[in-house]
Amino acid sequence: MDKMVRLAILAKTARMGTPTHQPEDAVFPLNVPNMIKTARLAKKLTTSEAANMVASSKRSWEAWESGTRPMPGAKLMLFMRLLADDEQIVMLFSYENEVPRPVDSLVETSFIGVEPLSKGRWLSKSIAVNPFTGRPYVHVAEFAEAENEKALKTLKGWKGVVERAVENFRLAAGE
Q1: In which region does residue 112 sit, left (phi positive, over 0), alpha (psi from -120 to 50) or beta (all else)?
Q2: Phi-psi region of 97 (alpha: psi -120 to 50; beta: other; left: phi over 0)
């Protein structure tokens, strides 16, 4: 995707009120507030506990999670790395000059699915909530298979929310 298209997406996203704190090479806007809130809730952490993990105040964490202040990259990276080995949360990363950068965090309860995009590239889809409007939307993140092999294997084993809903409907209907 060329830079002008990426800038157009960012401009439109900014007008919609979605946070745009993201890596420069992100194809889809990175919603850091949603990412950290999803990860925190999946780990059943309070805002104070999450803030302590990255040596910050509760007030700072709440500002980052609400999207009123951007989370410093080093703090975001630290938080994501501390949670990366958790089986309830899948972290997706991109690497530039061997430096990892977070792309997304996923939990099974909001997971929709993954699909191949092109050779070695995948899209993850999950349900997210815009922190400014409170409205749900489908969050899409592109990632490289080579950099996220373990994460992709886990995601392929998860059932998406639609698949789980259909399964529950069939069970309730006695099929």
Answers
A1: alpha
A2: left
H-helix segments, the chain: 3-16, 32-42, 47-53, 58-66, 73-83, 149-157, 161-173
**CA nearest neighbour of 68 among 56, 59, 79:** 59
Burial of 145 (0-12, 13-18, 19+ CB in 10 A): middle
CB 145 within 8 A of CB 121: yes
48-93: per-residue pLDDT in tens? 999 999 999 999 999 999 989 988 888 888 888 787 766 778 888 8
pTM over 0.85: no
How many Å apart are CA 46 and CA 52, to the nearest integer?
Answer: 10
